[in-house]
Design brief:
17% helix, 8 strands, Gamma-B Crystallin, domain 1, globular, 4-stranded antiparallel sheet, signal, G_crystallin-like, alpha+beta, Peptidase inhibitor family I36, 122 residues, binds calcium ion
Length: 122
C-alpha cells in the first residue's frame, strides 16, 4: 500500500469517527443543554434536538430545514430570549424566560418558530 493511500485511509477513518461523535448531540436531552445556552427541540419533552444558541446573541433567522419545527426549549442562559412566527423578528412573538424549561410550547406556538433572539424577550 502506498504511503499516500495509507494516509487517505487514516483520514477517512478520522472523518468517520468525527461523524459518529457529531451524531450524539442530535440526541441531546435537557440535561445536556450547556450553561449559558438556549436549546431547542423538534418534539415535545426535549426530544429531537434542533439546535442551540448562546444567550446574548441577537436576532437570527432559523435555517429553512429547522423553521416551523420548534416544539420544546430550555433557556439555560442568563438572558431572556424570544422566538417569532416569521423571519426577521416578524409576526407573533413568544418570550423564553431565563431559566425556563418548556416541555411543550402549546398548540398555538407549536411548529411556528422561524426566527429567534437570545438577548431579550418580546
Ligand atoms: Ca415540532
Amino acid at each position: 500500500m502506498s504511503q499516500f493511500f495509507r494516509r487517505l485511509l487514516a483520514g477517512a477513518a478520522v472523518a468517520a469517527a468525527a461523524t459518529t461523535t457529531l451524531a450524539v448531540p442530535a440526541e441531546a436531552a435537557l440535561s445536556d443543554c450547556p450553561p449559558g445556552a438556549v436549546c431547542f427541540w423538534n418534539d415535545a419533552n426535549f426530544s429531537g434536538s434542533l439546535n442551540w444558541r448562546w444567550g446574548g446573541q441577537g436576532l437570527q433567522n432559523i435555517s429553512w430545514w429547522n423553521s416551523d419545527e420548534l416544539s420544546s426549549y430550555y433557556n439555560n442562559s442568563g438572558y431572556n430570549a424570544a422566538f417569532y412566527d416569521h423571519s426577521n423578528g416578524r409576526g407573533a412573538c413568544w418570550t423564553m424566560w431565563s431559566g425556563q424549561a418548556v416541555a411543550y410550547v402549546g398548540d398555538w406556538a407549536n411548529d411556528r418558530a422561524s426566527s429567534w433572539r437570545m438577548d431579550r424577550g418580546c
